[in-house]
Amino acid sequence: MKRRPTRLLALVGLCMACTVSTAPAIAQEPSADDDRPVYLDPSFSARERAADLVSRMTPSEKAEQMISSRAPAIPRLGVRAYGWWNEAAHGVAREQLADDSEPEVLTNTTSYPVSLSMGSTWNPDLMHRVAQETSSEAREVVRDNTRDLNFYSPTINLARDPRWGRNDETFSEDPGLTAKMAAQYVNGMEGKNKNGELPPSANGYLKTSTTIKHFAANNSEFNRLTGSSDMDERTLREYYTAPFKEVIRSSSPGSIMSSYNRVNGVPTSADVGLLDTLARKTFGFEGFFTSDCDSVHQIQSGHQWKPAGEDEPLDHVERNAWANAAGVDLNCNKGYHDEHNFGTALPKAAEQGTETGNGVYTANFMDASLIRMFTVRIELGEFDDPEKVPWVQRARERVPKGSWENSDANDAVTQTPERLKLAREAASESIVLLRNKTSGGSGDKLLPLKVPESGQYRVAVIGDHANPEEMYLGGYSSNQHSAGRANGVNGYEGVEAAIKAVNPDAVVDYLPGTTPGSEQKLNRDSVRKSADYDAAIVYAGTDETTAKEDQDRKSIDLPQPQTSLINEVAARNPDTVVYMETIGQVDVSSFASDVSAMLWSSYNGQRKGQALADVLLGKQNPSGHLPFTWYRDESQLPAMGDYSIRQSGTSPGRTYMHFDGQASYPFGHGLGYDRFEYSDLRVDRNQVNANGTVRATAEVTNTGETKGSDVVQLYTAPPNEPAPTQHPDKRLAGFEKVSLRPGETKQVHFEVPVRELAFFDQQHRRYEVENGNYEFRLAHSSSEVAQRATVGVHGKLEPVPATVSTTPRAAEDGEHGITVRKMFPRDTVVKPRITVSMNDGTLRGHIADSQDTPLPRGTRVDYRSNRPDVVSVNRHGEIRTQDQGVATITANVRYRGTSESTSFVVKVE
């Protein structure tokens, strides 16, 4: 194309066939009203303050701030030491309290059910409440209630294989369910409402900052440091990165963690296309990226990676420069590490002009990273008067400043009755009733247990996991010392207390599953005794010896001798209940048909025993539903390192969307003590354009005799198409958890934008909607359909803006050499290089150097400056620095009636 005059440099390469305008400058925002530097002045935005603060740092100070464990203090600027690596997967559990070390495990903080248990609740509102309490407790225990408030949680990788060692950290195998649960975790932790917005009571401050992880396709432990997750672009977009996209757009999390593995041969922590092009420019991510600990080190030591065209692997300077240039802002430097990290290597990389996958390395990359990171710290209130930060004041009202210590001497003061009650509620709602059949000759189903109020009644609770010396609470748990253990309730303790509360004369005995001194030898005495009880509850489980981070499961069998224990107890006592508290699916084929009832949850928090008792005795009508497909055995699973999802000649496919076998239990399965009937499914139209929305309603009735909850699920099935298209057999389009009294009926509502039915067309690199008749299925699970409706879809998806981003540089920098700038001299033309991500997954405008494309014909772009005396925008759209200070430039893009905007900060030096 022909180069335009300098005055239009802001639009070069972007606006062929688009209209550029500049609206009148908005009212100038106030400058500092005293001698305070901008970064300490709350009248400026957090990003403006961050830019000012970063501009005052030396190159070495900048680099040293980019490590997690810990970023050192800068006394002359009032910057205190900060630990970025903290954990709160299911309760606040780790804090980075010391230099050059991993974070300390916290003592006596509340431990809630793990993410997989929360996923089985199918209740985002409950997840939001748990996250709110977790973040409140975090504010109470971290230093001064103001620091170390970034948490490396939640994990939103998908539970695609039950053998993965970290499945307890996931929410589901389904991207949509995962995204809805994770979004409410983020909202609750960060102090936002369920719509992802800070309420007025927050006074503009975040409560904590969250890190969604691990980006991307990090779903196997056996090769996590050296392996490559290989797949086509469609699988990457539709499955592995789909929950990240949705959480970014609905909740704007503070940060994302890159993963250890490679994706299609490129280490994720050095992958410009994955971090910058996909997460930032396509998904609209505006926070900071942290590495996994230490995935940057693994670029060299684990992967020994050689970029295309290079003869040698990257060295220690190059690996750090490549990672930061690709988009990793923070180097978690205490994992698999050596002495080289961002703090030590980046100044040298800038000095020698290291070539990277995103241009020549300069200090501009450090500026961009630090502004993102310090924006979060400022939003958390660290640099402001604590009296103005409501989260600080509320925490100090509950736990006076300086009174909490990380030892048993804290008396578990933050494990409040309200939090323990919530842990119990969440745990009871997570339990899935898999099976419940008639007990003996009574004609009644075994559960709930019918405990008489008086007289003889005997129950055996059997199995080592029922009454352990110390409960296993899942990965990334806090330590429970004497005060914390006093608040814990294991399975046996919970059942015994609940039964005796009904019948003080009842006998509730604990029988070990193994012989003392032998973890794998069946306790035959317990088996013999089990026949003498009115009910036998076999408590089976897994723990860190079965699988954990860095260790996948070898099989989906229960650890021995638990399967034998269940079989032999069931053979002697017809009223046998099996409760499985496990990392995921287990092989139940040998006993499923022989026991009267089966229950499942993942690791269920410190009140797990009360929750189990609530369900067993009917205080809680079970409402959990499986968040995964319950495979029968390993023969139904592809190789662990196979990251394909769709069926092939060697694979039956993964997840309910593609699996072609007979599962033990389908995705979404879950029974209750009452039956919920579905009726009157209606869709608001029989034909819809690809750009439209289908609205569906249905009636749900509790036909039982007690109050209960159910998860109403809506699936869509695509038109019949040729096999090569390989659409999912079905996809979860929506769900709603409803609670109804006996006989009560409620109408449920679903909205399904047709664009969500699209698939990623690899040839054209965009999402497209297949035309034809789609079936809408109202269902109890992915396999139990109650009602169906058909909607014809026609037309093509018309792309409109979904997100907008910018990559500013100075016009004088030319087209190459400087990828991004935040600091500019006076009288400089700023070229914003705008990128528009369309809702069909395509990018228009600036993509990368030499990869720009025109904005669509008819696009209108407006730029505004909030401080024209610092940075001006003229009527031609030229952005020019004027005077020392900081300003925010807002870019608004309008196309086909849709407007999206973004803003960036310019620091004028």
Descriptive notes:
A hairpin with a 4-residue loop joins strand 25 and strand 26. The chain has 20 helices and 39 strands. The protein is globular, with a radius of gyration of 28 Å. By secondary structure, the chain is α/β, with parallel strands linked by helices. Helix 4 packs parallel to helix 5. Helices cover 22% and strands 22% of the residues.
Can you describe this structure in just a few lines?
Helices cover 22% and strands 22% of the residues.
Describe this protein with a few key phrases.
alpha/beta, 6-stranded mixed sheet, globular
> What share of the residues does DSSP label as strand, in percent?
15-25%
The radius of gyration over CA amounts to 28 Å
Shape: globular
By secondary-structure content and strand pairing, the structural class works out as alpha/beta
Distance between the termini: 34 Å
The major pleated sheet works out as: 6 strands, mixed
Question: How would you state the average pLDDT, rounded?
Answer: 94
Number of helices: 20
**Fraction in helix:** 10-25%
Question: Order of strands in the sheet with the most strands?
Answer: 13-18-17-16-14-15
DSSP E strands, number: 39
Task: Outline the low-pLDDT stretches.
Answer: 1-14, 23-30
Write the layout of secondary structure elements.
Layout: E1 18-21, H1 46-55, H2 59-64, E2 94-95, E3 104-105, H3 115-121, H4 124-141, E4 150-151, H5 175-190, E5 209-215, E6 228-229, H6 233-240, H7 242-251, E7 255-258, E8 262-263, E9 266-267, H8 272-282, E10 288-290, H9 295-301, H10 316-326, H11 342-352, E11 355-356, E12 359-360, H12 363-379, H13 390-398, H14 417-430, E13 432-436, E14 458-462, H15 482-485, H16 491-502, E15 507-511, H17 524-529, E16 535-541, H18 562-572, E17 576-581, E18 597-601, H19 608-616, H20 655-658, E19 676-683, E20 687-689, E21 693-702, E22 708-717, E23 731-740, E24 745-753, E25 759-761, E26 766-768, E27 772-779, E28 785-794, E29 801-806, E30 809-810, E31 823-824, E32 829-831, E33 834-838, E34 843-845, E35 859-865, E36 871-873, E37 879-881, E38 885-895, E39 898-908
Parallel strand pairs: 1-35, 4-5, 5-7, 6-8, 7-10, 14-15, 14-16, 16-17, 17-18, 20-28, 31-39
Antiparallel strand pairs: 2-3, 8-9, 11-12, 13-18, 19-21, 21-24, 22-23, 22-27, 25-26, 27-28, 29-33, 30-32, 32-37, 33-34, 35-38, 36-37, 38-39
Helix pairs in contact: 1-12, 3-14, 4-5, 4-13, 4-14, 5-7, 9-10, 10-11, 14-19, 16-19
